[in-house]
Amino acid sequence: MKKIFAILLCAMLIVSSAVVSVFAEELPVDTTNEADPYAFDEEYYSKFKGQNVKLYVYNWGEYIADGSDGSEDVVKMFEDLTGIDVEYTTFDTNEGLFSKLQSGSAYYDVIIPSDYMISRMIEKDMLEKLDFANIPNFEKYVSATFKSDVEYDPTMEYSVPYTWGTVGIIYNTKYVTKTVDSWDILWDEDYKGKILMFDNSRDAFAIALEKLGYSVNTENEDEINEAAELLKEQKPLVQAYVMDRIFDKMEEENAWVAPYYAGDFITMHEENENLAFAFPKEGSNFFVDAMCIPKGCKNKEAAEMFINFMCEPKISAENCNATGYSTPIDAAKELIDPDLAANEYAYPSEEILSKTEKFINLSDETNKLLDDLWITISVGGLSTGFWIAVAAVVIAVIAICIVAMNKKKKRELLRNSSGN
User: Fold this and answer.
1) Distance (Å, rounded) from C-alpha 205 to C-alpha 191?
2) What is the DSSP string of 317-355?
3) What is 347-380 written as a DSSP string?
4) pLDDT tens, position by position, 87-128
5) What is the pTM of this model?
6) Which residues, including other chains, have CB under 8 Å from residue 205's CB and lie 6 or more apart?
7) Is the model more confident about 136 or about 203?
8) Which residues have C-beta within 8 Å of that of residue 409, sequence separation ≥ 6?
9) How far apart are CA 389 and CA 386, in angstroms?
10) Phi and psi for 218 in degrees, rounded to 5?
């Protein structure tokens, strides 16, 4: 169904693009196109044609419709529509993105970090304020949910949402027979050795803090230490700390219960119908990845045009159909695969959403505390075999160094003897 719907949406996009290409110089723009209410505004997108403008866009891997699996290549569509050349590259962590920008070793016009990293970049004065007059689709299409009470961008001056999602509990109904409605299931000894856990400090601590009734953004050291103790208690029950490996482990039923992202559950469920999803009653993380412009951007208005294009309902729908994530564009839901648009996990009820909390950036001191505590938890969970292997390597390295030093001393002695 998703692939069929993607092909139909591609056809719509291709027709829209073809019409613009053929008639751009001959026909006036009809911005109230009754036949296609989501037609692109050709006059707006023609501003930089023939000016040899180039944009550098930095996004997560596999996080855009790129022409594969029946999807449209939306970057190419933008290039054809605007005449702007785009160099599109990818990153794999928020921290890697931050370090690269902070070091000044790379230049980008548009970046797509996560909520808490946006907050950090705002604090460090690393982002440009956006001119929303150049991003009309923000006011026109972005849901009101993403325009107010935005913790990571309180003044709503630096970012435009790209996609969003939630975290919950994935479990196998063949083996997990208890009611799953709480983070408590991740501490249930009946499932010892079949539980997976996030392999990053922020997500793991968030679950422990929510289980204890604390904010995921707490800076209180006592609360964080209490959460650390809870994670240490869980450690003997955990089969593995994972990120991407969760797909194989859950789909192949090597593990039975794990916390993860709702969008990825939808993908896993297509491979194994025994998998189910639950939102914990204590609450969970609501995350947003948003488009921003780094400080010092040389093509700011063109970058804002790219952001506006990503907010076109057809483009947002194409991206979300391709990636499985949820759209912040209300009108895009009309164009998304109906099964995905109606999915209660991709688009939870207001009651569920009211129990979620977004990450914001924490102080440097708190981030260090979380990282230090997480090392003691996750590394402490490594097997005896692992440490034996590490010890063997260390001993081998020491032995090689000793042999090399002895050989060097012998050569020096021989040279000295020859000299005498």
Assistant:
1) 21
2) HHHHHHH-PBPSBGGGGGTS-HHHHT-TTTS--HHHHTT
3) S--HHHHTTEE---PPPHHHHHHHHHHHHHHHHH
4) 999 987 787 898 899 999 999 999 999 999 999 999 999 999
5) 0.74
6) 216, 224, 227, 228, 231, 370, 373, 374
7) 136
8) none
9) 5
10) -60, 145
